[in-house]
Amino acid sequence: HEKVGKAEARDRALAMLEAVQIRDPARVFDLHPHEVSGGMGQRAMIAMMLIAGPEMMIADEPTSALDVTVQLDVLNILDKLVSERGMGLI
Q: Whose CB among 4, 31, 39, 83 lies 3.0–4.6 Å from 70's, allowing a Cys bridge?
């Protein structure tokens, strides 16, 4: 983890929300957990895991409780981000 200022932390969070294909990251950033859909919540959790730049990600049932089309979206996002960052995925 790094020490960064509040503005930089927000900018990084918004960039990561965009990386996990969340539309209008600035609006979503200010939402409470109960205000987002299941798929959006899963993508937000992926963003939270990746923001620290880990070398390995352990994804335990990353698509549970999501419908089939959203499951595919989440898996494609995971695959793309893991490949781009050269990370391991379990």
A: 39
One-letter-per-residue 3-state SS of 25-89: HHHHHCCCHHHCCHHHHHHHHHHHHHCCCCCEECCCCCCCCCCHHHHHHHHHHHHHHHHHHCCEE
Task: Give per-residue pLDDT as tens, 41-56.
Answer: 988 988 998 898 899 9
pLDDT at residue 64 is higher than 90: no
* DSSP helix/strand/coil, 90: coil
Across residues 22-33, what is the average pLDDT? 94
What is the C-alpha to C-alpha distance for residues 17 and 68, in angstroms, rounded to an integer?
Answer: 22
